[in-house]
Every structure is written in structure tokens, then in C-alpha cells.
Design goal:
Layout (H helix, E strand, L loop, with lengths): L1 E6 L2 H16 L3 E6 L5 H7 L4 E3 L8 H18 L7 E4 L4 H9 L3 E4 L8 H6 L2 E5 L3 H7 L7 E4 L5 H4 L6 H8 L6 E6 L11 H13 L5 E5 L18 E2 L7 H6 L3 E4 L3 H9 L3 E3 L7 H8 L3 E3 L24 H13 L3
Parallel strand pairs: 1-2, 1-4, 2-3, 4-5, 5-6, 6-7, 8-9, 8-11, 9-10, 11-12, 12-13
Length: about 350
């Protein structure tokens, strides 16, 4: 069977890797399309996954996002019209279910932040894969059609972190990180996202002010967009490193003593790997982050004053990530079950 995967964002590539491996092991073929943004295509190249590039950055504002989604859906439908795929799969890709509907291909989506607008997925996806942690009550509160929901145990990051060939020493050496420095990864918020709250940017500035003058720290600043590096010049940061190429995300996280992010996959990867993680995401709290915080894995930074709770020190508390074969199996079984 041919299965269509759409990588709409960089982190989706990591999630899809073990699923591709399992589906190929079962004798199926996976065809990728990719949206050219947030280094999605570079990650597919890094992992040796061939793809068709369709669409790119939409721009800020709701109108640009709607126009971009509709345009990319049309382009995807044109690119995949004769692909022969029996089912499509994406991680929150909005253009994919629209394109699949145009082509008469059943579509499955997966995501782990329940407060995204679910209406398109409710209408155009046969199945919505969500972590069990979200639960039926929260799904209803978020407007998700619970009749379409299939749950899986654990966190999505566990799908790939247990088997990830981590190489933190190689990443640290390539970045020029000092052995005796406290290594901090700082990831700005997704300011173009519809759920972005400007309060996160206020906290980001407070964090940079706290890091200023700290010669004992190696700060790795992983910008989401080119313009986000400009604000670094406002602060006295003795050791700041802006990566100039794509690294394997989990290896980069594992090389750190602390990860501070404005939300997103890297913060949760750190929490799952046992690297101290702080989130200054200021959108509506998601159940997954709530659960990680309750377990003491994630520190939520609600305002600039809360950054006083951050501890800057070497981390020796790495954990062994449990192999989540059950979730890989459930996701793959669900994808295959929706084929025509």
C-alpha cells in the first residue's frame, strides 16, 4: 500500500521517522510531501527521506494563513493527483486534509495540543490521534469530535526518543561548547502562530537580561525566524552561539544542561530526556505540558518574575526513555485502518 505523509513543520519529521520505519517493515511504501519552512526540508535531507517540496511560509496574520493553507491544499492536490496513495497522514497539517478531500483520499491527523481550532480536522479527517493524557473531557471542552479520536499512551516524543541515536558530544564539539560551561538552549516563541501571546516576548527579554554578563554560560540561541536574532544585540551576552546549520534535534537537546523554550517540541523533548526544561509558552495550557509539570519535568514560566526559579547548573540527571512500541503500533494500525 502507498501512504502519503505530509511534513508541514520541522518537528513532524522526527515523529514520522519511526512510523515510516514500521510501515516499511510491514511492506508498505511512504511518499512524503514537505512544506519549506522551519528547516523541514533540511531535516528530511538529514535523515535521508525523499520528498516533494510543496509550499512555504504563509506570512503573519489570519488572512495570509487562510490564503496560504488553501493555496497549498490546491498545490498538494495537483502534485499528488496520480500518486496512488490509499491514505494520508499529517501531524496537524491543515492543507493535507483539504487536499486529500479533493482527491478522495481518507486522511488521518495527529497532534498533542488540544486548543488548536479543530473544525477542519473534525470535518475532513476520518481519525484524530491524540495522547491519552488529553482525555475525553478535555477533548469536548476543546471542541474535538470525540467520535473520531483514537488515543495512544505516553507522549509523542517517546515515539522516537527511545530509539534515537543521540550524539550530544558531536553536537557540542561542532558548536564549540566549552566542557566546563553551563550549556543553555534558548528557543524563542512562535510569534507567527495563531495561538501566540505577546506576553511570551516580554518573558524572553527578561530571560536574556538575566543571562547578560554570564561568562560561565554557553548560550545556544535557536531562532525560529531570521528576524529573531536581531534582539541579541540588545544584551551583553559573552558567549552566544547561533547555529548555522540543522542539527539532529534530540542530540542538540541532550547536549544541554538546560532548555528554555517559548513552547513546542524541544521543550518537551528535554523534559522526557531528563534535561531541565522551562517553558514560557503563554497560550492556553495544554494537558501534556500540565502533566509534565505535575511530574516535576517542566517548569512553567508565567511572568518575568518567575524566571528567578530557573537554576543554571550542570545537569547529570539523564533518564532512560521507555521504548513506546505500543504507540508506534497504534498509530500505524490506525493509519492503515482508514485506507479505502
Amino acid at each position: 500500500m502507498k501512504i502519503w505523509f505530509d511534513a508541514d513543520n520541522g518537528p513532524h519529521v522526527l515523529i514520522m521517522k519511526p512510523l515510516v520505519r514500521e510501515l516499511v517493515r510491514r511492506g508498505h511504501t511512504v511518499i512524503f510531501t514537505a512544506r519549506d519552512r522551519t528547516r523541514t526540508c533540511e531535516l528530511l535531507d538529514l535523515y535521508g527521506l525523499p520528498y516533494r517540496k510543496v509550499g512555504g511560509v504563509y506570512g503573519k496574520g489570519m488572512w495570509n494563513k487562510v490564503r496560504g493553507t488553501l493555496g497549498r491544499a490546491a498545490a498538494l492536490a495537483a502534485a499528488m493527483r496520480n500518486c496512488g496513495c490509499a491514505v494520508s497522514f499529517g501531524h496537524g497539517s491543515r492543507a493535507l486534509p483539504l487536499a486529500s478531500r479533493l482527491l478522495g483520499i481518507p486522511s488521518v491527523t495527529m497532534y498533542d495540543y488540544e486548543w488548536v481550532d479543530p473544525r477542519l480536522f473534525n470535518r475532513c479527517c476520518r481519525t484524530i490521534l491524540l495522547p491519552d493524557a488529553i482525555g475525553e473531557e478535555r477533548c469536548r471542552a476543546a471542541g474535538i469530535d470525540t467520535r473520531r479520536v483514537v488515543g495512544y499512551p505516553g507522549f509523542k516524543e517517546e515515539l522516537y526518543l527511545a530509539d534515537a541515536p543521540l550524539a550530544p558530544q558531536a553536537v557540542a564539539a561542532d558548536l564549540g561548547l566549552r566542557h566546563d560551561a553551563v550549556k543553555v538552549l534558548l528557543r524563542p516563541p512562535a510569534t507567527d502562530a495563531h495561538y501566540h501571546n505577546p506576553e511570551a516576548e516580554v518573558i524572553l527579554h527578561a530571560i536574556l537580561a538575566r543571562l547578560a554578563g554570564r561568562a560561565d554560560l554557553d548560550l545556544v540561541y535557536l531562532a525560529r525566524y531570521p528576524g529573531q536574532t536581531a534582539l541579541l544585540g540588545q544584551y551583553d551576552l559573552p558567549r552566544v552561539i547561533v547555529p548555522q546549520k540543522v542539527y539532529d534535534g534530540p542530540s542538540l537537546v541532550a547536549a544541554m544542561d538546560l532548555v528554555i523554550g517559548g513552547g513546542g517540541t524541544m521543550t518537551r523533548e528535554a523534559a522526557v530526556l531528563g534535561v531541565p526544561a522551562c517553558s514560557f509558552f503563554r497560550g492556553r495550557n495544554g494537558r501534556v505540558d500540565e502533566q509534565l509539570a505535575a511530574r516535576g519535568r517542566l517548569l512553567a514560566l508565567a511572568n518575568p518574575e518567575s524566571i528567578d526559579a530557573i537554576v543554571f547548573q550542570a545537569n547529570t540527571n539523564r533518564v532512560s526513555v521507555p521504548k513506546n512500541t505500543a504507540s508506534v503500533r497504534i498509530v500505524c494500525d490506525t493509519i492503515l485502518a482508514q485506507s479505502n
